[in-house]
Here is the input.
Amino acid sequence: MNTFGNIFRLTSFGESHGAAIGGVIDGVPAGIAISEEAIQQELSRRRPGQSALTTARKEADHVELLSGIFEGKTTGTPIGFIVRNADQHSSDYDNMRDVFRPSHADYTYYNKYGLRDHRGGGRSSARETIARVVAGAIARQCLEQVGISIHAWTQQVGDIVCTKTWHELDLTQVDANAVRCPDAEAAARMERLILDVKADGDTIGGVIAGVIQGCPVGLGEPVFGKLHAMLGSAMLSINAVKGFEYGDGFAGATLRGSQHNDLFQSAVAAAPTQALTVTNHSGGIQGGISNGMPITFRVAFKPVATLLHEQPSIDINGKATTLTPRGRHDPCVLPRAVPIVEAMAAITMLDAYLLHQTTHLL
Amino acid sequence: MNTFGNIFRLTSFGESHGAAIGGVIDGVPAGIAISEEAIQQELSRRRPGQSALTTARKEADHVELLSGIFEGKTTGTPIGFIVRNADQHSSDYDNMRDVFRPSHADYTYYNKYGLRDHRGGGRSSARETIARVVAGAIARQCLEQVGISIHAWTQQVGDIVCTKTWHELDLTQVDANAVRCPDAEAAARMERLILDVKADGDTIGGVIAGVIQGCPVGLGEPVFGKLHAMLGSAMLSINAVKGFEYGDGFAGATLRGSQHNDLFQSAVAAAPTQALTVTNHSGGIQGGISNGMPITFRVAFKPVATLLHEQPSIDINGKATTLTPRGRHDPCVLPRAVPIVEAMAAITMLDAYLLHQTTHLL
Amino acid sequence: MNTFGNIFRLTSFGESHGAAIGGVIDGVPAGIAISEEAIQQELSRRRPGQSALTTARKEADHVELLSGIFEGKTTGTPIGFIVRNADQHSSDYDNMRDVFRPSHADYTYYNKYGLRDHRGGGRSSARETIARVVAGAIARQCLEQVGISIHAWTQQVGDIVCTKTWHELDLTQVDANAVRCPDAEAAARMERLILDVKADGDTIGGVIAGVIQGCPVGLGEPVFGKLHAMLGSAMLSINAVKGFEYGDGFAGATLRGSQHNDLFQSAVAAAPTQALTVTNHSGGIQGGISNGMPITFRVAFKPVATLLHEQPSIDINGKATTLTPRGRHDPCVLPRAVPIVEAMAAITMLDAYLLHQTTHLL
Amino acid sequence: MNTFGNIFRLTSFGESHGAAIGGVIDGVPAGIAISEEAIQQELSRRRPGQSALTTARKEADHVELLSGIFEGKTTGTPIGFIVRNADQHSSDYDNMRDVFRPSHADYTYYNKYGLRDHRGGGRSSARETIARVVAGAIARQCLEQVGISIHAWTQQVGDIVCTKTWHELDLTQVDANAVRCPDAEAAARMERLILDVKADGDTIGGVIAGVIQGCPVGLGEPVFGKLHAMLGSAMLSINAVKGFEYGDGFAGATLRGSQHNDLFQSAVAAAPTQALTVTNHSGGIQGGISNGMPITFRVAFKPVATLLHEQPSIDINGKATTLTPRGRHDPCVLPRAVPIVEAMAAITMLDAYLLHQTTHLL
Here is the structure.
């Protein structure tokens, strides 16, 4: 199932060491001016080789838009696109052809499909997320037209946590450092941790936080298309994600209703997208429908499975062996995952926005 | 969007104070013997009025299966069903007709649709989950045929946590107490907390844990239909759920790859559903596909929004008012949510099982 | 697959001799006043036992709406409904339990599913179309709000053809005779033919024509959701339908472009829904999108398979046998199929209408 | 809606004068050997410039497969592909920028989307069908593994009809002449007619017939996914198609049940795919499910709208004007549509085959 969305839909394809990553974006609203440069910019945020924190693979990641845009505007027809793979070192993976990396998709892909493209992880590679970033960058340009903006940032790496809320952060500074945490002090500590981990040939997990501002009341389609269920499905489909929560999430489970309830502002004169409720434990969604307050969520990433030191493993015959991956891998996916989380949020929000347009006969 | 699933699909309908809750279950495998009693038993686990911990609403919740079963077996045609509502006290809700409860779906439903059935929460009532429990009970009977079993239990209420893992618990004892925690000691403390909270007219959140055993290798459809994304979407669609994680989840974000990776058993002679890996930080899913190990997950519930004491609120004109709900409400949804979590897990797993049957030409 | 539609969706269930026929209608626009009487009226048009031309089965076919409507208006939540079966004579079918009727679904259902509910044709019975008529009656009430109307009529029975076009007919007179052909003279001849056929214990096929008026420009979703592909899929899903065409259809295949092209009115001052083009060979759809002209289509029905005289057949072991159905069957489905064709057209048009609302960001 | 299918799904993109036509094929069964040459061969059958009967546009139509195949076999991951456009003469269309061709998609696209890529018809061009042919060629290679074969041919051009049934024709000779009618004598007459029509700058319609052999019993998903409804939807989505019928189709509407019913062979010893019934009025499908007999169907094509002589028309302001298209156009689409019809049949049949695999728990 390589299609995501209901109305605004991304269908993606591509393997890490195949010819290209690409996809088709369907259901794009017509008449929207699209900046190719803005798409390319998002791809650059996701690109490998940005800093010492990321894999050394060199990829220009140049997107070629093949259809659906005419004289700079969307025509309402599907946008096909490809990003060529360039810097494959497929021979780096020769020793992994018949061996499964622990906690990797190697074993499960092989057993599900009966064969696999082992080079660079094949379809299970995070390189697949290029397609999401392209679609997300287009969705984002549509959402701008209706005043919805999305920010994500690295909130935690290992046990280093940026405890500031989005109110307290300057979200324009997410890209100011390599780790993509807008709190410079926390970012510095995260960066040191990642470099330490990298020096050990090890990897580390973390948490990305996000906030969606400017969302009107009414998005989300209960009971199975609740807005947070759509967002959760989007985030959980990203490689290495192990958990999703919104609003107070797991922490809210410890609270009483009298503590957790968001009281309405005594006079709801202000636009709901700013000040409907005094607090926002709900994270901007009630009953699966946006209430106009900022939508807040968190996404947990496990540490990357591929270590750069020897690990015991098994081969396709179930025999014990050892494995020392070569290849090029991120010690921590968080910095590069920030634009991916934003992309999936944008795709989901635009889809929800368009779905909501069918609630009434216009 | 009131349909869940791809092949095995539940489409549900019904309001809290309408004539009935019901649905259509499509894509049911043909030739499976179905016990109506087993369905009824699951409904009884979900039913209000079971104990002092739950709402006092009295409902027999008798399911009437209307189609799709002939001489005790599924025919492959859709199973329609209804459960009549009986004990509505709609007048209890008269005072909520034009007032929105804080942190409830009242405000968002009204603003999305332009009108709402205010009685008992209408479609946003947890009474909707009856349809899930019926479909789940049918899915579960199918899954039994292929050796897949599902257990969920109350792991946390407020800040009282049952720290034992599923290995250390006797999962046959989940229903042994009203709170549905198989650790009797923790259950007793949870129960006391719920009664305290109830005495205050307040509510409390918590966490339900689950484990799926006997799942073969290969279920899940990357990249957007990853097994945990399907499970996450299922759980997040349940009322009051604020978070989902599987395997080590958010806690795994603090680990290094060398700590988090699940090494393969040195000799993989044993069936993968028992002992593929030494540890199970992955929670039975790698790359979005089941690896044969038990699938573990956790679901966070916020405290119920409807308190039984006065709260400040607003009415449909945005004017400040106060609200003292009457109606009948659970101080804590966890005990009754256990069968709902199991039902959604069963629906998801059967759907994934059937989808996987299309991976190869047979 | 018992769900039809994309946004406005019918999911149906029910067997001929089961407890009930019913369904769930999802994606209903909110705030639409619904007349239950109008739904019941459509069901009465489809009901058996209306005249000497139809099966003698007696069914009140009373619809019970179970959800989704509050104080007479749709709430945007799904409408569940059931119609109880009453007058089953299941024992009439005892002799068909292990025998397959020629050209009937008996053989294929049995072989697909491995078992079947043989009573009254089970799920393959045209009684299933009750659910379509209910959904269609609701769709029609929505379409009225936007000025779209739908008429179908019996255009041909056997080789008796009503050659008048919809312009030449008074479509308010469709129900003026039992055969539902608004040309009284042709209707009389059709009626005689049906009675002759019935007297022989035989059955006869025919053609239903339809016209959709008031459709705005722009409905239809190329390239796979072309409006006529949606309509064709809708019609071909009705029992006994063997063909679908729109505009000039098969006859247009003999024409030259210079004959078939619909020239634009020289001055397109008039609203397109009335007079965009001089002719309408296209049948109101160009490139899969409505052009504002009336949409015209035709649907071919084969003769009913169940004859009331002895036929040679085989049993479930492949052995030759003979079969004399008892049961109650229509000699010609056309009269009762008119409201079904209208219902499927209404469901499709409303779905297309709502889908089109997502073409632009509003 | 640019996705077709349920399990085996094609999502396509591309405009006539854009950079490329392409798509993503998802749900491909794993482990199937794929011949790129066989795909290329089908594209060559569809390619413009094959003969004097077709448009003069010169396109190599070389397919580039970008993913989903590893060492010659499908991996179960999506197959992305592109076919570059080369021989665009976009300036030929400058005079059509603001003018609508009669009976063309120009007017409807412009009004639906508010803008359009007018060059070569943009998305409404039949060049879009390249993606179908690629997916169909892959589907066909899968179907070969299970013994299902598909043939289509030009049965009628204008009023010249090849009256022979598929039994009487040598279907290996479809490509023996430019018109793709395996009856050499009829083909010669059709060819003359097309050349006459072309000489007049005119166009002509026709009918393509098809037969699917080797289909097992059981494919098709009632009630809305009936096999013929899936096939009909597939065919009606092809440019210029105005009608679809299967079995006896519209002609069967004139028959009595006693004439139309297909009696079972007295001894059903033979495999159903050869000799289940004595006749085959049903066209291999009963109750929406294949019965093992050959599946027969017919598809009506209208004459191409773009004439090469002056026609009166209107511009985007509704003003009368005249139009003399330049561009390059087929006088008759039938010859090139044969591989497209086969492709859509193959896509549909593979999808139905895979769906049927979910009918039982395996």
Summary: The first helix of chain C runs from residue 36 to 46. The mean pLDDT of chain C is 94. Residues 142 and 350 of chain C are 7 Å apart (CA to CA). The two ends of chain C are 33 Å apart (CA to CA).
